[in-house]
Each structure stands twice: as structure tokens, then as C-alpha cells.
Structure to design on (73 residues):
């Protein structure tokens, strides 16, 4: 099974935005706090619509939040 190669800057962006809580981000994105925790920790890759919602919340592009590293064996 392939490891999730998606990293993100959610934690940094939350703190740069008045130390936004995970719950506040979850409310704005329409998901649970547990979903934000899983995405932030790299255990879950968000759907494209959710990635757009998170980016819009911070007023940045998806690429400013999520980075994909394609590691081929």
C-alpha cells in the first residue's frame, strides 16, 4: 500500500491566522475537528472540494497549503 505523500501547512496557517483553532477551521470547512486533526497530521488526504474550502478559508491557493511528493520505488 502506498504511503500518503501529501504534506500540508495547515498548522502554520492556523497560527498565522490569529491562532485559529482546529474546531474553528472545521466549522468553516464544514467537517469535524477529527477530520482536520487527521489531515493536519498527514493521516488523511482531503477530497479536492475540501482542499478548496480549506484554501478559501485561509485566502491562499491549494498549492500554498498542500504539497505532493511523488516518490517512485
Amino acid at each position: 500500500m502506498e504511503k500518503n505523500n501529501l504534506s500540508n501547512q495547515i498548522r502554520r496557517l492556523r497560527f498565522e491566522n490569529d491562532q485559529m483553532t482546529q474546531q474553528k477551521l472545521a466549522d468553516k470547512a464544514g467537517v469535524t475537528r477529527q477530520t482536520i486533526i487527521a489531515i493536519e497530521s498527514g493521516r488523511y488526504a482531503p477530497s479536492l472540494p475540501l482542499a478548496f474550502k480549506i484554501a478559501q478559508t485561509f485566502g491562499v491557493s491549494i498549492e500554498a497549503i498542500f504539497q505532493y511528493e511523488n516518490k517512485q520505488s
User: Anything to note?
Assistant: Helices lie at 10-16, 22-29, 33-40, 48-58, 62-65. The first strand starts at residue 6 and ends at 8. The chain has five helices and two strands.
